[in-house]
Design a protein that fits this description.
Layout: E1 11-12, E2 16-20, H1 26-33, H2 51-66, E3 70-76, E4 82-92, E5 97-104, H3 113-127, E6 133-139, H4 143-151, E7 155-166, E8 169-179
Parallel strand pairs: 5-6
Antiparallel strand pairs: 1-2, 2-3, 3-4, 4-5, 6-8, 7-8
Helix pairs in contact: 1-2
């Protein structure tokens, strides 16, 4: 695989700012990932130790250093409130592919923030990284996440049967794919217009 630097971007949308993680995000990150309701469809149990946030931040730094992905804090532009995060990982420049993921707190649900943040990250992925394919997975019970992916233009390609077991709970995941030729970039006005 071709090694290439992947600088973590800062992206702006009408309502959001996506930026690299820093050490001051540890408390917000722990609050998000220790919430059982937020993680009910996640592939691992809620965090119980604050040190997990430090390890997550270390992985963010490692992704950036190795150039294999980008994890971004999603915050509301109007007040800087931490809403969650969005990631592009498993980046393969040879195959021009990557995987999309995201996690948002309950206060952010139902406002279109996940769709808006993911759309900005996808625009960067298809534009700057010249990707051909982005893949995503969602627990088959997570209707809200499936709806986000479908709004973004992802196509459900199949089901991974019983691919996760968390706290004894066995679940299936849907696999989604979005090809470059299917991508509809956002039609937000540019600063020049």
């Amino acid at each position: 695989m071709t090694l290439m630097s992947l600088p973590t971007p800062t992206l702006h949308t009408a309502r959001l700012r996506l930026r690299p993680f820093d050490d001051t995000d540890a408390d917000d990150l722990f609050a998000l990932h220790s919430n059982a309701e937020v993680l009910r469809y996640w592939d691992s149990p809620p965090w119980t130790e604050p040190a997990r946030a430090e390890r997550f931040l270390a992985v963010c730094r490692q992704l950036a250093e190795e150039g294999t992905g980008a994890r971004l804090v999603v915050e509301r532009a109007s007040d800087g409130a931490f809403l969650g995060w969005c990631t592009l990982h498993r980046w393969n420049p040879d195959y021009r592919s990557a995987s999309l993921g995201y996690c948002f707190g309950e206060a952010a649900w139902g406002h279109g923030y996940a769709t808006e943040a993911a759309r900005a990250l996808l625009g960067w992925a298809y534009g700057t990284l010249d990707l051909n394919r982005v893949q995503a997975e969602a627990d088959t019970r997570n209707v809200a996440s499936a709806r986000v992916l479908e709004k973004l233009g992802f196509v459900r390609e199949g089901t991974l049967r019983e691919d996760c077991v968390v706290n004894g709970d066995v679940s299936d995941s849907w696999v989604y794919g979005l090809l470059r030729r299917e991508w509809q970039p956002p039609s937000e006005p540019t600063p020049d217009s």
